[in-house]
Design a protein that fits this description.
four-stranded antiparallel beta sheet, mainly beta, 1 helix
Length: about 160
């Protein structure tokens, strides 16, 4: 939630050896109960002026979700922007190799404070648009990304 009270959803899921763990957000709680979905266990939190690091246990791996906020004390504009970059790292806790997949997404609250705004969603596979074309091939190394924008863009300005 941003400081003026606007909510913005951010979901994080890690799949370890086929077991699904939610480590960020509460999006899966709005679905009917899923037997194969668990909540990652929080282990530690630490903060400094630019990073917020959250450590979780997801089965046989520990993951660290690091939020980087590019805050520079001399730049009041940048300091006031509610923006973070997310980096997720993971490490085996049992010394064994594990198959790991990561998923992260945000909702449209990040681009508009108005809940009645029409949003355009475009799906990309390794940088190429696949929006419902049926051309998605998918492999273990495939990176999918969404680009979202308001159907009616705001004129650049300040409120």
């Amino acid at each position: 939630m941003f400081w003026p009270g606007n909510s913005a959803g951010w979901e994080g899921i890690i799949v370890v050896d086929g077991a699904v763990y939610e480590y960020l957000g509460t999006g899966l709680q709005s679905l009917p109960p899923l037997d194969n979905v668990k909540t990652a266990s929080p282990l530690a939190v630490d903060f400094d002026s630019q990073y917020s690091n959250f450590t979780f246990r997801a089965g046989p791996v520990d993951l660290v979700a690091s939020f980087f906020s590019p805050v520079i004390p001399q730049d009041l504009c940048r300091t006031s922007i509610p923006l973070s970059y997310l980096q997720v790292t993971y490490q085996s806790t049992d010394g064994q190799p594990h198959e790991v997949q990561l998923y992260s997404d945000v909702n449209a609250g990040w681009i508009s404070p108005e809940s009645n705004t029409t949003v355009k969603w475009n799906l990309f596979e390794d940088g190429s648009a696949v929006n419902g074309s049926g051309n998605a091939t998918g492999s273990p190394s495939t990176v999918y990304s969404w680009v979202l924008s308001q159907q009616n863009q705001y004129e650049f300005g300040e409120q």
